[in-house]
Amino acid sequence: MVMTNLGILGSGAGSNMQAILDAIAAGGLDARIRIVLSDNPDALILERARKHGIPAEVIDCGGHRMKFPEVAQETTARKLAEAGVDLVCLAGFMRLMKRPLLDAFPFRILNIHPSLLPAFPGLEAWKQAVEAGASESGVTVHLVDAGMDTGPILGQERVAIFPDDTPESLHARLQLAEHRLYPAMIAKYATRLRP
Ligand code: GRF
Questions:
Q1: Could you tell me the pLDDT band of residue 193, with boundaries at 50, 70 and 90?
Q2: What is the whole-number distance in angstroms between the Cα of residue 178 and the centre of ligand 1?
């Protein structure tokens, strides 16, 4: 079996990255995280990665709040390629990518989203679900394309919404599902990529 080299892009706490590391340590995922990149210099994901001895770097987005400038995407693609990455996993990464990053890793960028897509795409999907009065939500792992949470779906896990749920309590339960589903889907998809 060939081990998969992962690159992680995240903007926040990095709990999904930690779940991936835990799955690797437990033998459920034959992979290694080669590099972690973040658009947020203060993101906890960078600190967590460094604690595990994983190279962790900041992507300079030139002061843009939401945009992922082309030059920053080029730098990201180069850093991922230099680190020998086969599969890119977005884990709470808050910018939309188009070219040139998508072209550099065709069908090789995955994302985890905290809803049952196509329901509740975009920001704070847990809040959207509670505000809509939904009785169920969930999490989705999908391939990334140029749209907002629109790429082909690889797997989903359902999560019930209780009448007394707040956006925060739902998000906490969704995250537990993310931590189960994402490593399992990465392992499954990685076997499809192998020659
Ligand atoms: C996750 O809930 C993810 O679905 C969302 O952002 C959060 C990131 O959490 N898009 P973490 O950084 O993996 O802890």
A1: confident
A2: 8
Residue whose CA is at the smallest distance from ligand 1 atom 6: 92
Q: What DSSP assignment string belongs to the chain?
A: -PPEEEEEE-SS--HHHHHHHHHHHTTS--EEEEEEEES-TT-HHHHHHHHTT--EEE---TT-SS---HHHHHHHHHHHHHTT-SEEEESS--S---TTHHHHSTT-EEEEESSSTTSS-SS-HHHHHHHTT-SEEEEEEEE--SSSS-SPEEEEEEEE--TT--HHHHHHHHHHHHHHHHHHHHHHHHHHH--
Q: What is the pLDDT of residues 103-112, one digit of tens each?
A: 999 999 999 9
Ligand 1 pocket, residue 175 CB under 6 Å = yes
pLDDT tens per residue across span 126-168: 999 999 999 999 999 999 999 999 999 999 999 999 999 999 9
Please, what are the domains in the chain? 4-193 (3.40.50.170)
